[in-house]
Amino acid sequence: MTKVSMTVNGKSVSGEVEGRTLLSSFLRDGLGLTGTHIGCDTSQCGACVVHVDGRAVKSCTVFALDVAGAQVKTIEGMANPDGSLSVLQQAFQDNHGLQCGFCTPGMVMSAAALLADNPSPTEAEVRHGLEGNICRCTGYHNIVKAVLQASGQDVSKIAAE
Amino acid sequence: MHNFDFVKPATLADALAALKSDGAQALSGGQTLIASMKQRLAAPATLVSLTGIPELKGVCIGEGGLHVGAATPHAEVAREAAKHYPALAALAGGIGDPQVRNRGTIGGSIANNDPSACYPAGVLASGATIVTNRRRIAADDYFQGLFTTALHEGEIVTSVVFPIPQKAAYVKFDQPASRFALTGVFVAKTADGVRVAVTGAGGDGVFRWTEAEAALSANFAASAIAGLTVSPDGMIHDLHGTPAYRAHLVKVLTGHAVQAAA
């Protein structure tokens, strides 16, 4: 076992890990941050997306020791400081951008990274930017709508499908 | 997956020293290797991460063209190469998905040499030079078959140098689940002629379509290849496409790439 330290959601954390411990496992089992979901564990589904030094990555395909010292942000760090939903999270709720909710943490983290790079994306850019995240419930339409609303664009004319 | 010792050196010299231990393997972005280790297709005793070595990262113009550090993630190539070599930047920006592009690297891709990966087509069509800790290898000598390269034990890619063509384009027909190329074609036109490299089709991995190169060197137009045929012999056969289907795609995508580059 090796000691690993990093900053997660603004707090310095550390824990004992093996070489093979994945970032997703360290977050969930080591830190109890179970908002990061493990769906496929093969980097296909995107439920485990977190930010490492501001970039979205699939935490099931990154070793914890490889991001020692990094700034990590998870879904637990996305709400406003008073605990209310952030603009992006609220937009998911407003637009019914989730049904079972399993993919939602990864969707929110990917969407947040997308909007940080491109604050006013087109619908096509949102769909392209979410290619690494799979949702088996919604058909994506309301997720895309939520991301567009969070970017400040008028989505009232986009029909719910 | 089996456990291993993890080391993350800060210099190339330390990484090369660590790679001398028995069962040591280099880890770059890990977007293929970690999945392989989960399936126990790979079980290194020691993993040597190359992601903490500044000298292996970055994109810049230098002698011979565009220099891309081996540990540069695809997303950074997509951003930084756009003004110098747009076709290469577009290739990098179309690999996998955004999260894979934030971790996966060019060095990892070409060291692995997956027969359906995008970068081998760009490297081979560009006539790039693969720079290792020991030598410089021409792309034509580097790719040697399925998951096989000219790299020796203990040798790692440090950068890739791309001569910048006059015109170029990469067109890939996505395999939509994996986002690898079902088939992809990179066309590059230089003062010395045209090079056409095909990925996702050849049973021995990336290859050059030399008949198309000759035709396009004489006349750089999609019509120049209209009379050519591509043999399906030896092409990849899987549930996503037959050899005949891939052979058809090679010609169609080459035409599209020429149109996109023109």
**Average pLDDT rating of chain B:** 97
Gyration radius of chain A, to the nearest Å? 16 Å
Reported for the largest beta sheet of chain B, the result is:
5 strands, antiparallel
SSE ordering of chain B: EHEHEEEHHHHHEEHEEEEEHH
Radius of gyration of chain B: 18 Å
Terminal residue distance of chain B: 48 Å
Tell me about the biggest sheet of chain A? Answer: 5 strands, mixed
Strand content of chain B: 15-25%
Shape of chain A: elongated
Count of helix runs of chain A: 5
What fraction of the residues of chain A are assigned to beta strands by DSSP? 15-25%
The total number of structural domains of chain B is 3
The CATH superfamily name of the largest domain in chain A is Beta-grasp domain
Domains of chain A, number: 2
GO molecular function (chain B): FAD binding; oxidoreductase activity
Pfam family, one (chain B): FAD_binding_5
Domain FAD-binding PCMH-type (chain B): 1-167
Protein name (chain B): Carbon monoxide dehydrogenase
Overview of this protein structure:
The complex is a heterodimer of chains A (161) and B (262). Chain A is built from five helices and five strands; from the N terminus they run E-E-H-E-E-E-H-H-H-H. Chain A has 161 residues and is an alpha+beta fold. Chain A has two domains: 74 residues, Beta-grasp domain (Ubiquitin-like (UB roll)); 64 residues, Orthogonal Bundle (DNA polymerase, domain 1). A five-stranded mixed beta sheet of chain A has the order 2-1-5-3-4, with helices on both faces. In chain A, helix 2 runs antiparallel to helix 5. The mean pLDDT of chain B is 97. In chain B, the strands form three sheets. Chain B has a five-stranded antiparallel beta sheet. Chain B is built from ten helices and twelve strands. With 262 residues, chain B is an alpha+beta fold. The longest helix of chain B has 19 residues. In chain B, helix 3 runs antiparallel to helix 4. Chain B is globular, with a radius of gyration of 18 Å. Chain B has three domains: 45 residues, Uridine Diphospho-n-acetylenolpyruvylglucosamine Reductase, domain 2 (2-Layer Sandwich); 109 residues, Uridine Diphospho-n-acetylenolpyruvylglucosamine Reductase, domain 3 (2-Layer Sandwich); 95 residues, 2-Layer Sandwich (Enolase-like, domain 1).
